[in-house]
Amino acid sequence: MKPLVLAVLNIVLLLAMPAAALGQQSLISDPEIYEKKHFQEQCKAVEFADGFVTRQDINNDGLIDAVVNEGLLTCDGQKGPQCNDDGCTYNFYLQVAEGGYFMIATAQIYGYDFVQRFGNMVLAMKMHPRFCDRTEGDPCIVTARVRGTKFVTISKK
Question: How far apart are CA 29 and CA 96, in angstroms?
Fold first, then answer.
């Protein structure tokens, strides 16, 4: 009886695995090419300023990741078309050892600094004051570290 139960369980797992794999994000070869192609399809005329893509290791794994600042593109004459009072859209991509990248996060921010805290590099993101439970004043600084494939908030001020 035990071997039959194990066989049925193995079949169920094999059938469930492809469904789980479909839920995972596909790897892209290069975020810069991917993002530029997207906007070239969306806009009749598009320009990308220097700094549209920044390449740096954002998760402390030694691989060079990519950050895309959509505020540094001009689409049909409009600079940063998705920028608003909350800032501009930034897309954060992690590189994997097997080759390729995947998007870890999208954030609407004013900008960020990459700083060292307690021996690790962290992102200090400048955000709208409401993210620090304020209605006005200086931008909120949300400090986050990338652990694995997640942003972990360290502090807000």
Answer: 10
Q: List, in sequence order, every residue forming a beta bridge with 115; answer none if it has no partner.
A: 122
Contacts of 41 (CB under 8 A, 6+ apart): none
For residue 56 the two structure tokens come to 């740096």
Query: Phi/psi of residue 3, each to 5°?
Result: -60, -35
Pair of tokens at residue 74:
């001009």
Tokens of 124: 């200090």
pLDDT in tens, 73-129: 999 999 999 999 999 999 999 999 999 999 999 999 999 999 888 778 899 999 999
- What per-residue confidence (pLDDT) applies to 149? 84
| Residue 66 and residue 93 in contact, taking contact as beta carbons nearer than 8 Å | yes
Q: How far is the CA of 33 from the CAs of 22, 30, 36, 38, 129, in angstroms?
A: 23, 6, 5, 9, 33
